[in-house]
Specification:
This protein is 77% helix and 0% strand. By secondary structure, it is mainly alpha-helical. The protein starts with a helix and ends in a 16-residue tail after the last helix.
Length: 435
């Protein structure tokens, strides 16, 4: 009852601040940041009493406070928090990379390869086919030829497929899960996002040629090579720098890493590098190839995990338009169901084929269902690159993402608990909101 009353009080204060003053500039940024931080925290406390993941509360706070419901946090306010969002993405990437121990994953590396082929790449093919079949239900295909429809279906099918290392990291932190399943889940979503970036570039090139979106095959190939390989190489350099600091200076390592995250978040996108991939590579280098103790750095980040998860997912929630979801509900439910169903079938088949551990075979598929950061980024890219159908495609993509963000964290948390790995990670995790 107390968290609910506090939530209502914070909401009332935000409404008063919006009503009696014109908030602009940095004041708007500070107000939006503080409100999202508090409202997401108290909403998470409320939903946790219903045995729902705290992550669901973070997203729900963003949805309700965002421009499509109460409009307490406007689009301009959310846009002003771009830096905060970027830094949070970098911290999540560094943490996820540093949690990924390749020696632990090596016994299931063959399973990981087959899951990538059957479940991840297979889902792109299946979603493309389903989109083509149900295209009469989707207005954006109304004036397209068959060839154009196939190209656009492939583009949207690939754009629907990305996973979310951030969601998996958040739920692993909340449940304090550790073990073979947790490691496999983390490895699978990291690899899947890299594959999605590569296949999106191919699909975008094909769509550009067929539709005439002005996409050059050579330019796209070079862009993807730079974004993928450049991000990985730059991430290794960042990992070496952080590792050197950890082994020599030692004091203030977490603050130094945080400053690195700020720099990467600000500079990375301007030079067309992916901050998430950069920091994932840095974290993987620290954990697996550096002499530095990555665990000490991650321990230092524990106190920062709660505000990172709160603001990052609350901001993601502000982008979800429930009105658009209702209007496109039939094709959206078909696509979301097929996507989840194929991940179940493809992952189970790959795991059984490679004699994966029972818990991995039974539960690993659910980690491939959540969507967040990369999906949102691809939606923005599609809108800019293909102005003829991009906005309509963005509505469909955002609606599918909304369904997955609402339901998949609940299922993921439930499966982690059932697997028996929940609670095995030592230490208190501030991302769980316990003090």
């Amino acid at each position: 009852m107390i968290p609910l009353l506090l939530l209502l009080a914070v909401t009332g204060l935000m409404q008063a601040a919006r009503s009696f003053s014109t908030v602009i500039g940095w004041q708007a940024t500070e107000l939006a940041f503080g409100f999202l931080l508090l409202s997401a925290y108290f909403t998470a406390r409320v939903v946790s009493q219903l045995r729902l993941p705290r992550l669901t509360g973070y997203l729900l706070a963003g949805v309700l406070a965002g421009p499509f419901v109460l409009d307490l946090v406007t689009k301009e306010m959310a846009g002003s928090l771009r830096v905060v969002n970027g830094v949070a993405t970098c911290i999540l990437g560094l943490t996820a990379g540093a949690e990924l121990n390749l020696k632990r994953v090596r016994p299931v590396a063959r399973t990981l390869r087959w899951v990538t082929v059957f479940s991840v790449i297979g889902s792109m093919v299946v979603l493309t086919g389903v989109l083509f079949v149900i295209r009469p239900l989707i207005p954006l295909f109304a004036d397209m030829t068959t060839t154009q429809s196939i190209a656009v279906c492939a583009l949207i099918g690939v754009a629907i497929s990305p996973q979310s290392p951030a969601v998996v990291m958040a739920l692993l932190s909340e449940t304090r899960a550790e073990g073979p399943l947790s490691q496999f889940m983390l490895a699978s979503v990291v690899v899947s996002d890299l594959v999605a970036v590569l296949f999106y570039s191919i699909a975008a090139t094909a769509a550009g040629i067929v539709i005439g979106g002005g996409v050059s095959m050579v330019d796209t190939a070079l862009s993807v090579a730079w974004e993928l390989l450049g991000s990985v190489l730059f991430g290794v350099v960042i990992g070496v720098v952080i590792g050197g600091f950890l082994t020599t200076v030692k004091q203030g390592a977490s603050l130094f890493a945080l400053l690195i995250c700020v720099v990467v978040a600000e500079i990375g996108t301007r030079v067309h590098l992916d901050p998430l991939i950069v920091m994932l590579a840095a974290g993987i280098w620290l954990e697996n190839f550096s002499r530095a103790d990555a665990s000490s750095l991650i321990h230092g980040f524990e106190s920062a995990q709660l505000p990172v998860f709160l603001v990052w997912f609350a901001l993601a929630g502000t982008k979800l338009d429930l009105g658009q979801l209702v209007q496109t509900i039939i094709p959206v439910l078909i696509l979301a169901s097929v996507r989840a169903g194929w991940h179940f079938v493809g992952t189970r088949f790959a795991c059984e084929r490679t004699d994966a551990p029972p818990t991995v075979t039974k539960y690993a598929w659910i980690a491939l269902v959540p969507q967040a950061g990369l999906s949102l980024a691809l939606i923005v890219v599609i809108q800019k690159t293909f102005p003829t159908f991009g906005p309509a495609a963005a509505v469909l993509l955002l609606s599918v993402l909304a369904v997955n963000q609402i339901f998949s964290p609940i299922a993921l948390r439930s499966f982690l608990v059932r697997s028996g790995e929940a609670g095995k990670k030592q230490g208190v995790d501030f991302a769980a909101g316990e003090h």
